[in-house]
Amino acid sequence: MNNELSASFERLTELEAKRPTLIEGLPGHGLVASIAVEQIVTQLGLDHYGNIVSDAFPQVASFEDGRIRDLIRVCAGGDPTVMTLQSDVVLSPPASRALSQCVLEDLAPEFDRAVFLAGAPAETEAQIGDVHGIATTDGLERELAEAGIELAEGRGVIDGVTGRLAIACYHADVPAVVLAVKADPYLPDPTAAQSVIETALEPLVHFDIDTTELEEQADLIRTRLEDVAQQFRQTVQQQRPGRQEDPTMYQ
């Protein structure tokens, strides 16, 4: 792989968590993963473990509360044993390839399994928050069943960076689950994020997250994340010009 497409993990602290579960929170449909994982990081008080950096990532600066920060961050904690992956920007296919390779090489030896979150456009309001699981192994299928998470029926596609990470884990024999959730087809969706936390992540990862804020501050969250949501929609349109939203395609 040439330097332009490579990425590296810059460790900031020692990992206290023993074989944590990685939970992915990268921007996708409805920003469900981003919203859910931000809530998890805040609620659990996870430590900033390190950053993933690459020349393939957008050459922009991210900041929060007046401080510059890296675009792609990894947080972790030991009680419960959780690791998270977050990004402030939507990644292009070359950047996604670099990220997935780094996750496999630098992070996969440290985590026990990966949980990826993917959204698809809900066709009705009643569908918003519906969650189904997709597993890479028989053991993880059993874990989904024990957690009360139904398997996704029929055929479908997991697109974008989440799909690339999932297939990379599958081929590398890294245990992984995709939680596919129906979300608002146009706006950042705190309701879908709340649902995936309460109905899937809590029983699967065995932690307790207070999601009251997602309900009480839904409008504020949508406003704060609308720029990222717009960036995601533009990226999808550029990659699939002229195609309509597909309810069987998760990303």
Biggest beta sheet attributes: 8 strands, mixed
Contiguous uncertain segments of 5+ residues? none
The helix-strand sequence is EEHEEEEEHEEHEHEHHHE
Strand order, sheet with most strands: 1-3-6-7-2-8-11-9
Class by alpha and beta content: alpha/beta
Mean pLDDT: 90
Principal-axes geometry comes out as: globular
- Total strand count, please? 12
Query: C-alpha Rg, in Å?
Result: 17 Å
Beta strand %: 15-25%
How many alpha or pi helices? 7
Description:
- The chain has 251 residues and is of the alpha/beta class.
- It is built from 7 helices and 12 strands.
- The chain has helices at residues 32-44, 93-107, 138-146, 160-171, 190-205, 212-216, 218-239, and strands spanning 8-11, 21-25, 47-53, 62-64, 67-69, 72-78, 81-87, 113-121, 131-135, 157-158, 176-183, 249-250.
- Strands 1-3-6-7-2-8-11-9 form an 8-stranded mixed beta sheet, sandwiched between helices.
- β6 (72-78) and β7 (81-87) form a beta hairpin.
- α1 crosses α5 and α2 (93-107) runs parallel beside α4 (160-171).
- The longest helix has 22 residues, at 218-239.
